[in-house]
Amino acid sequence: MAVAWYTQKKTSSSTVEYGVTASSLDQSASSPTPPVSYILLGGYHHVVKLVRLQPSTRYYYRCGDAHGGWSEVFSFKTAPDDKLTEFSLSIFGDMGYLGSAERPMKISTDGLVKNWSALPARQTLEKLKNEGSIDLIWHVGDIGYIDDAFAHHPVEFTYEKVYNEYMNWIQNLTAVLPYMVSPGNHESECHSPACIVELRFNALRNFSAFNKRWHMPSQESGGVLNMWYSYNYGAVHFVSINTETDFPGAEETDTGDSHLKFMPAGHFAPNGTYLKWLEADLKAANESRANGGPNWIIVGGHRPHGVVKACCAAMFEKYGVDMYFNGHAHNYVRSLPSNGVTVERHHKLNHYHNAQGTVWITSGAAGSDETTYVVDVDEASGKAKPRATNKISKTEFAPGYTAPVGAEVSDVTTKAMSIGVLTVKNQSMLQWKLYSATSGEVLDELSVTKSS
Ligand SMILES: [Fe+2]
Question: Which EC class, in a word (predicted)?
């Protein structure tokens, strides 16, 4: 487990004290390197890796040190080391920070000031956590929309301040559940005028803040920073892919999200390294599956089917990727299993059994300041209120029905604000539920099963 935190002031070490009861934090681990600070930005980022932990065990911990002070005591539960333990994770992309009532926008890139809110999604996650319904979280890119901070404060440099606020806003989740992240285009850079005028752009270009603040298991999986990595958890091999850089046709091959030449991007490894790693990782996972390893291979990344299809659909098919999750599009789209070309039309819409292709799911409606359609403004209070509609559109199939050739791959869609939860029941069953972030009702439900 990696524990990471931020301090305004330099401390003499980065230390975590931990133990299996709250009253006896009898073990201690420190980072071998001093805390990292940004040039021009201030503040210190700390990370400590806790190793040789017992599986399925709750640990209590605090972080800091005697010199800089200690955090309060939090706890987390380690991953199981078997393939039988049921677990659940929430998967979504594109969650902003607060909402337009709390952080009104002054300007926007397309001239439209948005009415929006990430609060219903944030509250849904809190509820799921409190109920004990989720064991981990996977935010598949566009984390807090920190690069849009200037839309709220056009003349000030607020990137780091807003990122800190966002991290505090989600701390009730991140201090107790593993919060896994994938790179999205909004992680790319600070392109605010204040960042450029004050020469901070170089410290924040090419996913720097994203890679300083988060610590995914890339070292352990042969990946690079938080850009690409994989890990096993229970009956699943999870792979987090990079949809932004380092493959032919990537949107941010040489420059970041704003495509300004003075902020080069990409090239996290020599050309070809990333896709070679992905192929080797999927191949190994598929072989391991045949030899008693995790039975499910689940991939997540920021951009939808179309982008991933070009680089990776052939690999997904060859090595039997069961599901792919993404954000970027601010809605919900679920497909029938497909290898990117042929759609398996014989399945029931709520139950895919022995699918040959990958199930593609866009879960990108957590709410952000680039989305206006999910929120209305309450006339009386002037505050943003969630739109009541939770309309879902489905292509209904009777059992055995074959959809006409040419029908869309996307068969269940909604624009309602939502948060998804995947439950890994065991080696032969997955359950996916999409919850309305505003009403909590289950908007979509799917079982994916395999003959064991
Ligand atoms: Fe995006």
Answer: hydrolase
